Amino acid sequence: MAICAEEARRATSPTGSVMIGVGSGGDVSAGVVVGVTPDYLVGRDPEEVYDNCVVARSGEAPTKPLEAMG
Predict the structure, then answer these.
(1) Strand pairing of 15-22 and 28-35?
(2) Which of 21, 32, 34, 52 is deepest in the core (most CB within 10 A)?
């Protein structure tokens, strides 16, 4: 259920990170990563994403609601 809760969270907004590093020669490097899931692009309800994921992985309905997964 924790994996499915994370999938549901990713359906609510894009994810991203920024990386900055300095090499041994003093060279500075930077990068940006943005992730967007198909569920987010089509506007799927996170609760639906969660429920469908749990059923697909376990064959049973979730025993805890998405809100309880924090």
Answers:
(1) antiparallel
(2) 52
Per residue in 5-23, pLDDT (tens digit) is 999 999 999 999 999 999 9
Q: Do 10 and 36 form a contact (C-beta atoms < 8 A)? A: no
The Cα 15–Cα 17 span in angstroms is 7
Q: Which two tokens stand for residue 36?
A: 């967007």
- Classify residue 17 by burial, with Cβ atoms within 10 Å: 0-12, 13-18, 19+: exposed
Q: What is the 3-state secondary structure (H, E, C) of the chain?
A: CHHHHHHHHHCCCCEEEEEEEECCCCCEEEEEEEECCHHHHHCCCHHHHHHHHHHHHHCCCCCCCHHHHC
Query: How far, in Å, CA of 42 to CA of 49, rounded?
Result: 12
